[in-house]
Design brief:
Blueprint (H helix, E strand, L loop, with lengths): L5 H11 L4 H8 L3 H8 L10 H8 L9
C-alpha cells in the first residue's frame, strides 16, 4: 500500500489547478525552488502556510492529511 504524503497532495492539487511552481511560489511569497523541494519531499512547508496552500489550491487543510 502506497503512503500518500503531503508532498504528493501539493503537487496533485497544483497540477489540477494548472499552476506552475513559479506561479505558486509567487502566490505564497516563496521561491519556485521551495515549492520543488516540498513536492520532492526534501522538506515540508511551514505549518503556517497550510491555510494559504488550501485556499489557493481549492481544498481544505484536512485534504493534505487524508
Amino acid at each position: 500500500m502506497k503512503k500518500i504524503t503531503i508532498s504528493d497532495k501539493i503537487k496533485k492539487y497544483r497540477k489540477e489547478n494548472n499552476i506552475t511552481q513559479e506561479q505558486f511560489g509567487q502566490l505564497l511569497c516563496v521561491s519556485a525552488q521551495a515549492i520543488s523541494k516540498w513536492e520532492r519531499c526534501e522538506c515540508y512547508p511551514d505549518i503556517t502556510f497550510l491555510p494559504a496552500l488550501a485556499y489557493i489550491l481549492g481544498c481544505t487543510v484536512n485534504d493534505f492529511f487524508e
